[in-house]
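Researcher: Before we compare anything, I want clean individual predictions. No alignment, no superposition, just each chain on its own. First chain goes here; please echo the sequence and then give the structure tokens.
Model: Echoing the first chain and its structure:
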Amino acid sequence: MLNYLFAFLTSAAIAVSFRGRMRAVPASGLAGLLGWAGYDITLRLGLPAPLGAFLGALVVGVTGEVLARRLREPTLMFVVPGLFPLVPGIIAYRGMLNLAQGDYIAAAQELTNTLFYAGALAAGLSLPPAFLRRKR
């Protein structure tokens, strides 16, 4: 439960650092919380973590599109802060640490895993605008 609180606070803090309007800050936190929930539920079901990252990013993308329309703010105001809890920073750090220590096999594994996460985040985030934005 504490992870959900931190996902909300992280996303809200990033929204504040982007100098978003105060009415958009809690909504940005909500996007991060819902994205983390999608990721967490996927892991609890025993599915692979990159799939969880994909579903979390998909949830963030859909939430960002909906909130942008309701609050008349740019979608990026919700999507970028909402993605922060899902970014695989510790995996990338361990990969670079292994690389610096000369453990090239472990480094390759960690950095490849980081690339899978990054690809999953990008794929999950790219689908909602394609389906939810109206053609003009």
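Researcher: Okay. Second chain, same rules.
Model: Second chain and its structure:
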Amino acid sequence: MDCQQSYLYTWPEKPISDAQFSALVELVEKRQVGYPVAYLTGKRGFWDLDLNCNPSTLIPRPETEALVETALTLPLPANARVCDLGTGTGAIALALASERPDWSVTGVDRIPEAIELAKSNAALNGLTGINWLESHWFSSINADQVFDMIVTNPPYVETTSPYLMQGDVRFEPHSALTSGEDGLDDIRHITEHAPAYLSEGGWLLIEHGFTQHDAIIALLRQRGFSKCRGVKDLNGLNRLTLGQWLR
């Protein structure tokens, strides 16, 4: 019906058209087989933003808000340069830009449709000035570009994980979910190459599965990161790992 819920309360007796009824039946049938509500409605809330969603990228999840919260607590310059790797809907980049309008925020994704979706979400929320870049991780970022913080919610699910056959993820792009037999292939790549794009004292923040913290903190320390630590989610599970780059 393309209306607010209050409209339904105001006009409860208003009949719907045949076309609207057909659309309703189609939506119900899709939901009965588990198709995600966010893809059915094309919307999902994140932070205090309204975001468009589509099957080109993952649906933003509440757990990722912990990444935003942690990023906002770090000692960064007032005009910090920040990169969101694998931006998808743009959720993280947009949340950070909404809270820190003086930051220079860049959102990176290798999927052109995801970049277009992120741009539409920036316009939807009135957030201008964000840099959007089509790039497979660091591949298209200028070699002389450095950031004070890199944040990422990369693929981290094992390719054989039974989780892939459950819930919403059955309908989400597996290329945005899986990363090798142990789920760490992309995180290894990011950890290895991130220092070349970090300023002195810059931070790398990684969202991951709750069993992967020990492996990721070991990767960060082996690469030479300092002040490495984990952050737990509301369920008390390790959800983020971060480290600082000091040359």
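Researcher: What stands out in the second chain?
Model: The beta strands are 43-46, 49-52, 81-85, 104-109, 131-134, 147-152, 198-207, 226-232, 238-245. Additionally, The mean pLDDT is 93.
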